[in-house]
Amino acid sequence: MNLREALVALAVERLNSTAYFYGIALPDSQDPDYQAKLAELISKHLLIPANVLVAMNGLSDEEILALRMITIAGGGNGVIVEQCHQKLNQLSRKWRRNGFKVIEGLITRGLVFTRREGYRQVYFVPKDLREVLSDFFLSAIFQRTSIDPAHFSPRYRFDFAAPLRHVCLLMSYLRKHEVRVTQAGSMFKKCQDDLVVIIEEDENSLDESFFPVRYPPRLAFLLFFAKSHSLCEERSSTLRLGSEAEKWLDAPYSHWRKTLYTYWKQTFIEQDSDLQTLLWLIEKSPEDTVLSVSALLDEMNALSTSHSSHGLNLRIEKNLVDMLEYLGALEVYESRNDIMIRVTRTGRALFGLEPWPEEKFDTDIYVQPNFEALVPCTIEPRILWSIDTFAEIIKVDQMLVYKLSRDSVYRAMLHGHTPDTIEEFLAEHSRIPIPQNVSYSISQWGTSYGRIEFEDVILLKCDSKELADELMLSPRIKPYLKKKVGPCYIVVDRESYQSLVAALSEEGYMPKVKPSTRVATEQSII
């Protein structure tokens, strides 16, 4: 809601009072659009920064404190009336004072408004006015919380591909393995341990997970994200690739990252007003500014609307800073007594502040004579998805190590690959020529595939050799028969079963049909 809309919703008497306060000439009282025109005049007046500054000069320290809190707290989403009064009483140490008396002066000036959300009243500043007011408040906050960039050195080499790589590897693991879940809905320990290694989970306590199922934090985030977007689904007590997995793999990588960021906000931020406030401050920080987390915490003493700040330090570190760093939005530096942060270009794009930057993924791998493939951790995710189809990951580091084997090639062929497509892929993406022994082995392993094949058939039994021969010679029945495998036995394709039964009946043979065979055949057709 903008300022004009908020003013139009007020009673005419309140609008007149606000106009008198600012010395704004009233329009013709007989004008049928009197209220809308007066709201427009007041709005234009207050949206001029110099006029807002004049209005603020007449406010007390407590009123300035309240206006800053309502403008910034919760990322500008407003503050519940009772929480606002309680916080003002706490900050002023006037525990029995009615906080509304402080807010009344702001309401009279048209700087703060109220709205109903469910069963609660909320104080808020209209969006366009908030932009004007926040410039005054944020410049002072960033002056107190920023540090010299010369002292900043990110704690990790920035691995921009990490979250995209981990989602890709999680999906690929579900594609290749049978991941069983317990009655409580959690994966068995063996699969958990495998995935913890693949997604490079830090050795954190399970107590730091904020999800209902007790997985390590990163695994929990990625798994619940995948479930919520149908990238994986639980069917028959097994986790499998979901209905949206193929569409996800075809989407731009910027979409992958934006979707992860949106899910993170919904999961960790939207229900925590303090983290909303801090995220908003980070989003509004000037480009290349380095912020001190401890200084931001000091600012939260006057901005937090929670009844208690217990656990805020941990929530900021784990749910805000660590997650934004993982998603590629922040660079982080740890000193002895503080944590410093700086928004990356990717972060500014996620915040909607600038166009999406070009992300340059690696496209080359290195195939070794020992059947290992060295894959940079910044490999393009769709290339990684293909590699993970026909090779087994054996080491996770800045350089991923994959191993080609008979079993891994066989698994790839079950998913539609051939020795030729595997060799073509390796030839296209290998930075060095494919070793001759590797190419030869892939071809040899491929020749073994398909020499043994299972067929889903039904065995037709006749009571005599003569009857079996008669059926094989019948022009009406022979099209449904596959071949004779004994004097009295004939193999029949399961798909032809119903048609064969009908043909035999029409020819007067009256076949004996077992109920179990009929049900099994109907289910296979369905």
- Beta content comes to 5-15%
Task: Please identify the structural class as seen in this structure.
Answer: alpha+beta
SS field, number of helical segments:
24
C-alpha Rg (nearest Å) = 34 Å
CA-CA gap between termini = 54 Å
- Spans of at least 5 consecutive residues whose pLDDT stays below 50 are none
Mean pLDDT: 86
Shape: elongated
In quaternary terms, these chains amount to single chain
- Give the total of beta strands: 17
Helical coverage, percent range: 40-55%
**Count of discrete domains:** 4
Main β-sheet description: 4 strands, antiparallel
State the strand order across the main sheet: 4-8-10-9
Walk me through what this model shows.
With 526 residues, this protein is α+β, with helices and mostly antiparallel strands. It has four domains: 3-145, Arc Repressor Mutant, subunit A; 148-358, no CATH class; 366-448, no CATH class; 457-525, no CATH class. 51% of the residues lie in helices and 12% in strands. It has 24 helices and 17 strands. The strands form five sheets. The chain has a four-stranded antiparallel β-sheet. It has a four-stranded antiparallel β-sheet with strand order 11-12-14-13, covered by helices on one side. A three-stranded antiparallel β-sheet has the order 1-3-2. Strand 2 and strand 3 form a beta hairpin. Helix 2 (12-22) runs parallel beside helix 3 (34-46), helix 19 (406-414) packs across helix 21 (436-448) and helix 20 (419-429) runs antiparallel to helix 21 (436-448). The model has no long low-confidence stretch (mean pLDDT 86).
